[in-house]
Amino acid sequence: MSESEWTFPSGFTARVAALGLRETGDDLSLVLADRPAACAAMFTRSLFAGPSVTLSKHRAAAGTARGIVTVAKNANVATGAEGARNAAEVADLAATAYGLPEGSLLICSTGVIGRQYPMPVFRDHFAAAAEHSRAATPLAVATAMMTTDTHPKLAQAYAGPARVLGIAKGVGMSEPNMATVLVYLFTDAEIAAPELDALFRPAVEDTLNSLSVDTDTSTSDTAIILASGAAGPVEHTALADAVGSVLLDLTRQLARDGEGATKLLTVTVTGARDKAQAKRAAKAVVNSPLVKTAVHGADPNWGRVAMAIGKLFDDTDIDPERVSIAFGDQQVYPIAADGQQDLARLTEIMRAEEVVISVDLGITDPAGEARSTVYGCDLTDQYVRINADYTT
To answer: Within 13 Å and on the Cβ side, how many CA atoms surround 163?
Structure first.
């Protein structure tokens, strides 16, 4: 879709600006609600969570917010008491500039850890925000949020008369332990904050919490949903389906754009004892550097998948004699691919832009609910290069 085709649901507007935090382009964005919006949010569990996370977590607990401020190229993490004061000041400067109550905006930051905000720059900007910023589309906001992303990430779905729009950024330091990277959903559905929270959390668990690019949990991970209520009430099941659809779309985009990635890697585990075990096994596979490099090289080395499952030492009910492994629609264990036709099919599967690996643990019915699908990407030399040179 073109920039003009992406619009915010009713009740939301946005601004972007270039403060010089990055060499070129916008690095500050604000999405504002024209009324108090119902709010639900999830935040990183990192012990080094940044002041922006701490502040937003406190404010989101009230169940309403008037919008989100996002700062790119500066994570404001490991910045101590000064960083905490700066996060609050930036959020409240933005609120004052746009006629909103202090304490009503959430704030998120992404970028290099350990650097203080350049506060004179923020103060000068918000002193004349109308002159220094411009009205923005969702695409412009998604672009302003990017760090090492190669492209902006957006998705949308409908729930009756209401719409759910999602915006995300993030391609590295991404194995969430609550939510992931920075992900915002905006809807004009009317729904109370407790009900919004109740449908948001399980959707995050099945999507964003099922993503891993590199096994690393960011200090800034945040997922937020705001509901303006402008479209009126909608059926909660329909809204939950729309939220889940948007989050899954964004999760797949985030995985596909993993730093240096050339392929999306999807791993599904079935037949587990319970859903938690299924996810644990799927994450063991998607996080294995040996599996990820085999996927990159289009090498159908199923032994690496077996190795990854075998690392689950504490899951003593996993019996290798009951496990089966498939790449795409081709089983490779315990019945190994054989013959030129099977090998040609495997080569085709492994060269695809999305590689699907399936593992059945054989503990319960593979069609049952004790299953999990996780999303990741291949591991390339470009990932090493991007992260070796990130701050220099």
So the answer is: 11
Instruction: Name the residue with tokens 């695809």.
Output: 352
DSSP for 344-378, written as a single string: HHHHHHHTSSEEEEEEE-SSS-TTSS--EEEEEE-
Cβ-count burial 294-326 (b if 16+ within 10 Å, e if not): bbbebebbbebbbebbeeeeebeebeeeebbbb
Tokens of 100: 């909103």
Q: What's the CA gap between 233 and 244, in Å, rounded?
A: 18
Catalytic residue positions, numbered: 180
Half-sphere exposure of 80 (CA within 13 A, CB side): 3
SS3 147: coil
Residue 361: both structure tokens together: 């643990």
Looking at the structure of the chain, the number of domains it has is 2
Are residues 29 and 159 both part of a single domain? Answer: yes
Same domain, yes or no: 132 and 8: yes
- What residues make up the domain containing 307? 264-388
| Residues 241, 274 share a domain | no
Q: What is the pLDDT of residues 359-387, one digit of tens each?
A: 999 999 999 999 999 999 999 999 888 88
CATH number for position 352: 3.10.20.340
Instruction: For tokens 């063991």, name the residue.
Output: 284
| Pairing assessment for the beta strands 354-360 and 264-270 based on DSSP bridges | parallel
Two tokens, residue 152: 């902006």
Average pLDDT (115-122) is 97
- Pairing assessment for the beta strands 182-190 and 222-233 based on DSSP bridges: parallel
**Overall pTM surpassing 0.90 (yes/no):** yes
Q: Is 165 found in the same domain as 289?
A: no
pLDDT of residue 175: 83
Report the Cα 220 to chain-centroid distance in Å.
11
